[in-house]
Specification:
Blueprint (H helix, E strand, L loop, with lengths): L7 E7 L2 E7 L2 H8 L12 E3 L2 H9 L5 E4 L3 H7 L31 H70 L2
Antiparallel strand pairs: 1-2, 1-3, 2-4
């Protein structure tokens, strides 16, 4: 047989009202309020022990009961605003801020500036060398084209001379063979 848990009453402020709920645990109360944050850990929600405030929520467990906060109506009329309660229990004090040690003088940029200048000079020198190489490549290409044209002319002339010599030799051979018969 399952044991029935005893109901407890919890309260959290919602605007000008307090929201009361009767639930078996803080987790169930948070679920009834629809809160994803732990309002109890933040000190915003608390358990109610006053019998007069517990009667209505215990009559309808799991249902949110809203009540105008006592004293707030008078405080609002006077212009005061209600203040949140601080969480009960241990409060962590902030540790004192650690003082940073004196960093000393700012580092010199001289070495960086010298290295950047050396890099710029190297890039300029390499650009000049590449431009010079491209000019030499163009000159070599022009020389190659001229040489190819010269070779073509010389080859054509030599081939024509060989053809003429062949024809002359063939006709001389024909004449010689004709005499031998």
């Amino acid at each position: 047989m399952a044991r029935k848990q005893a109901l407890k009453v919890f309260r959290t402020p919602i605007g000008f009202h307090d929201a009361y709920v009767a639930a078996p645990s803080q987790k169930a109360a948070l679920a009834a309020w629809g809160s994803s944050a732990d309002l109890f850990a933040r000190g915003v929600a608390e358990r109610v022990t006053d019998e007069a405030l517990m009667r209505e929520p215990l009559a309808s467990p799991g249902t949110i009961v809203r009540r105008l906060r006592e004293g707030d109506a008078d405080a609002l009329a006077e212009g005061d605003t209600p203040k949140r309660k601080k969480p009960a229990g241990k409060t962590k004090a902030k540790p004192p801020a650690k003082r940073r040690p004196d960093p000393g003088p700012r580092p010199s940029r001289a070495a960086l500036a010298a290295a950047e200048e050396a890099l710029d000079q190297l890039r300029s020198q390499q650009a000049r060398e590449e431009a010079d190489l491209r000019e030499r490549e163009k000159a070599i290409e022009r020389e190659r084209r001229d040489l190819d044209r010269s070779h073509q002319r010389d080859l054509a002339a030599a081939e024509a001379a060989v053809e003429k010599a062949r024809r002359d030799h063939a006709s001389a051979l024909d004449r010689w063979l004709a005499r031998q018969e």
